Amino acid sequence: MSPPESSAPVTPSALPQVPEPLERAWQVPLDHPAFAGHFPGHPVLPGVVLLDLALEAARSFQTSAADGVWLVPQAKFLQVVRPGDRLLLRLTPTATGTLNFEFRRDGEQVASGQLRAGAA
To answer: Less crowded by CB within 10 Å, the N or C end of the chain?
Structure first.
């Protein structure tokens, strides 16, 4: 019995194309407005600032996100980020359409998570 005609071999061009990861460096400004009140005398960058940076980078991958809405199914903040810290953001697209993000300082992970374009 011969195989069905529709069982053509899968070629690399038939596989879904996943864009290359994106990396962006960012030095936390000493006078970032988020430090006012968070916390006086011991400034700590709020995690929402890191999420905002990841979302801004995500827009360069997926400009068709429904109404610009993004979901954050997962986020972990592992280390304190302070004024003047130099961070590296790596945004990695997956074959399922999600974007994994990771922030590192001196090679050590400070935050990570996942983003997904969503509907309002």
So the answer is: N
